[in-house]
Amino acid sequence: MKTLCTLLLALGTLCSIQAQERKVNQPPFIVRNTSTVEINQITLSDTATVLDIKAYYRPHNWIRISGESYLLADNGKKYPIRSGSGITLDKEFWMPDSGEATFSLIFPTLPATVKTKKNATEFVEFAVKLPGREDNNEIVYLPIDAKFPKDIYEQYQDAYEVGDAALIDTSSRQLEMTIKKMAKDIHDKYVDPPFTTDFAIMFLPFENIYAEVIRRTSLVETLQKEFKIVVTGPTTLGAILNSLQMGFRTLAIQKRTSEVWNVLGAVKTEFGKFGGLLEKVQKNLQNAGDQLEEVMGKRTRAIERKLRQVEALPTEESQKMLNLPDLMEDEDD
């Protein structure tokens, strides 16, 4: 008898490639309470994380997957198992004669994080995909990382409420040092041109903290110049992303404009050729009309003048002489 309880995976590796690949073959993992399973493949989707398991155990003995099994992230967050496919949770699964069996375990969707820096082990919380250079289809990431200096800010607010000038000054300098340290941390971990933009975004999810930071002009300039960090809050992050979207839309329109002008130039050239051909056709039609007028007009009248003195034969005799069919019969047919 074996009971499989807890699965620990390198979730950072899985999350980093979720946006690029939907399947992970032979992922690194750690399993507790058993050594009889292997993870052949992990399928990542927007609705679930599916682990394809291969189990090894003595034939005609049973194993059991605990309904309390979970994936454990590096930050301690647990992703509890939802269900099994090919196996029922908390029930005995009898091994076949081969001593090998395959089944799937279904877990919640893992958060999608991205490794923006080459040869690094850190994963940014959010990354916006931007188009790269024109000569290829590479993607450039814009790193966005959330920071929570809530404790330091609360100390600063408490100092203001007490009215202690020395404590206010100390906590204010400590708040600025914390923000600078966070900015340096983001820059060193996630900014890596040309694979990323040369700047990153620090997202402060509390509006009061963002307002306190943004009103310190010298601090904001230091973050931008030294660490290439743009500070945003709940009300400004959306505006920045929208401006980026509009900027790249404008760029795409400009690129399309040059393509449109090229197409119009080609059409203009071909239309010029088409006009020349139409003029030639018109001249040919005019020549044909003139020639037809020559035959049907002048030549016909000249022949009629010569034939005026010739006595016309009856119709039947003329048809027999010229071996012509009867026109009336031809029309009836």
Characterization of this structure:
- The protein is of the alpha+beta class.
- Helices cover 44% and strands 23% of the residues.
- It is built from 8 helices and 16 strands.
- The strands form 5 sheets. Strands 3-5-6-12-10 form a 5-stranded antiparallel sheet, with no helix packed on it. The protein has a 4-stranded mixed sheet with strand order 13-14-15-16.
- Helix 2 packs antiparallel against helix 3.
- The longest helix has 71 residues, at 237-307.
- It is elongated, with a radius of gyration of 42 Å.
- The model is unreliable at 1-21 and 329-333 (pLDDT under 50).
In short:
This protein has 333 residues and is α+β, with helices and mostly antiparallel strands.
Give a quick set of tags describing it.
about 325 residues, alpha+beta, 4-stranded mixed β-sheet, 8 helices, disordered N terminus, disordered C terminus
Q: What is the spatial order of strands in the main beta sheet?
A: 3-5-6-12-10
Number of strands: 16
Distance between the termini: 100 Å
Provide the residue-averaged pLDDT: 77
Principal-axes shape call: elongated
What structural category do the secondary elements indicate? alpha+beta
